[in-house]
Write a structure and sequence with these properties.
single chain; eight-stranded parallel beta barrel; alpha/beta; 40% helix; 317 residues; 10 strands; TIM Barrel; two-stranded antiparallel sheet; 18% strand
Length: 317
């Protein structure tokens, strides 16, 4: 089922989760162990992130080094298929521009269509670990809107090979990213939302936001989006804060602010368990406020801390 259909048919707020593929060498059981307790809350879907290859230098026998490409977290498509099979649930893979050619993207979309996957999240992706700025694949997309355009083309039966006549049409529901505190590379919020509007006009169906810890940012963002003519569903992304290191790491990584009250409470905590309790209580209050404001969905970035999200959901429902 398409995400937009889930939202249209839902009588109450929907729950959903996002997970990382395990690092290479780990089994699918690590994903199941991560999710099993959370399935109690009957999520409508689970997002699975995609990760580009990274360049590393390996030492040769003669003492020189060679540059090789490795993918530390493969398996997004396979994980989606496994989740659908095990839990009978919708899985939404991320698709990214970075590190992928247009042909590789088309082939991935064909695989997803054959698996019966109806939803994708189209993202530009981050710069490579060894690069300061994003550089696209030589034969890939530079912007997320170009990726959206390719998915829409395939939905219309238009393939890269011009000799494919009357190609089979896919039917993907397309999500894109939104930034309640502005994308780090955007000069201002209005410009950032104008870029978002272009993706919606091209055919994207919904927006999933970057994490945030101050709900008014999300409400103001929705208001701004509506002023710019962005009227598709906007889903709030939520992630628990669970340790003091994140007070500096998260703002630096995601270009977001952490409210002073949350900082103060986290700094008062003396133990790891106390830090998690602070994060649990803050996320719980965020969720209660979002429910009060009729948020259509609570989308949780689980990323290593399913127990915190479980405790929040147990108190909510």
């Amino acid at each position: 089922m398409k995400l937009t259909q889930h939202l249209a048919e839902a009588k109450d707020t929907i729950i959903s989760f996002e997970i990382l593929p395990p690092t290479k060498g780990k089994s699918i059981e690590s994903i199941y162990n991560h999710l099993n307790s959370l399935m109690e809350f009957k999520p409508a879907f689970i997002n699975v992130t995609y990760h580009r290859a990274e360049s590393v230098f390996k030492k040769r026998a003669d003492g020189t080094f060679e540059r090789v490409e490795i993918r530390k977290r493969p398996g997004t498509v396979g994980i989606c298929a496994a989740l659908m099979n095990k839990y009978k649930i919708e899985a939404i893979p991320h698709l990214i521009c970075g590190g992928f050619s247009k042909e590789e993207t088309e082939n991935a979309l064909i695989d997803l269509d054959f698996l019966g996957i109806k939803n994708v999240l189209a993202l530009r992706g981050d710069a490579a670990a060894n690069e300061k700025f994003f550089n696209p694949h030589p034969h890939g997309h530079k912007y997320a809107e170009d990726l959206v355009r390719q998915i829409v083309s395939l939905n219309n039966g238009t393939y890269m090979e011009e000799d494919i006549i009357e190609g089979a049409k896919t039917d993907f529901c397309i999500g894109v990213a939104g930034y309640p505190e502005k994308h780090i590379e955007a000069p201002n919020m209005d410009t950032d939302i104008a870029y978002l509007k272009r993706k919606i006009d091209l055919g994207a169906h919904y927006v999933t936001t970057q994490l945030f810890y101050h709900n008014p940012h999300f409400y103001n963002y929705i208001k701004k989006c509506h002023e710019h003519g962005v009227n598709v569903p906007i889903l709030p992304g939520l992630k628990p804060l669970t340790n003091k290191k994140q007070l500096t790491m998260i703002p630096r990584t995601f270009n977001i602010e952490i409210p002073m009250d949350l900082c103060n409470e986290m700094n008062k905590a003396k133990t790891e368990a106390a830090c998690e309790q602070v994060g649990t209580e803050w996320l719980l209050e965020q969720c209660r406020d979002l429910l009060k404001h009729k948020a259509p969905i609570l989308h949780f970035y689980t990323l290593g801390k399913p127990s915190v999200i479980y405790n929040v959901l147990k108190q909510l429902f």
